[in-house]
Amino acid sequence: MNPNSGSLGKSLKNMESITGNLSKNNGKIDSAIDNFSKISGKLANAKISESIESLRNSLTKLDGLLGKMTSKEGTLGLLLNQFSIFLVMLPFYMAAVGLFAVGLAWIVSSLHVFLRDTAQVLSVVLTFWFWMTPIFIDEDKFPSRVRFLLFANPLYYVVRAYRAVLLHSAMPSLADLAIAAAFGVGAFIAGGLFFRYMKRGFADVL
């Protein structure tokens, strides 16, 4: 009987201790309940349903914008659809054209020192060259008897590559790149050697 009385006494003491602690912290508990009530009130007044509806409308508009971007509506959509991975090939053609232009510039500038009419002749040659390059006229529309001139035109291969990449988003011909590069390197070397040879007489004429 005594052991049970001891256990019961300890239990009563623990209950009294818990009750005392609750009494001491009654103010804190009331404060926590009051704060929870305030938070609940703020959430109730926050118009969550309206916020969710606004978010849903924003997502719908974003989805519509992304749909236009992936379609061909609008300028941005057209640009994204016309973008091609083969654009990385164009700098190689630009380099070939640059080498070709520098080589021709060396030759023409050397001749102009001795022949003052070189500029006038060059303007006529460039005009003829322009119309013999399939820029505005497709290569298939050239007369068959003069079509062989296209194959001797280095810009023919460059224009054909530009048309394939920019208009058709297709891979340009590697054979065209090799031919354009050969023309560019050949003109660059020939122009450099020609200018180096001709510059010996520049001092006598200038």
Describe the protein's architecture and organization:
α5 runs antiparallel to α8, α5 (90-114) runs parallel beside α9 (174-198) and α8 packs across α9 (174-198). This protein has 206 residues and is mostly helical. The protein is elongated, with a radius of gyration of 42 Å. The chain is built from ten helices and no strands. Helices cover 78% and strands 0% of the residues. The mean pLDDT is 79.
Q: Which structural class matches the secondary elements?
A: mainly alpha
Task: Name the helicity range.
Answer: over 70%
* Strand count: 0
**Spatial extent as radius of gyration:** 42 Å
Number of helices: 10
* Biggest beta-sheet profile: none
Which geometry do the CA atoms define? elongated
List keywords for this structure.
206 residues, elongated, 2 domains
Structure summarized in a few sentences:
The protein is mostly helical and 206 residues long. The chain has 10 helices and no strands.
Question: Helices, strands, pairings?
Answer:
Elements: H1 2-24, H2 26-45, H3 48-70, H4 74-82, H5 90-114, H6 118-131, H7 148-151, H8 154-166, H9 174-198, H10 202-205
Helix pairs in contact: 5-8, 5-9, 8-9
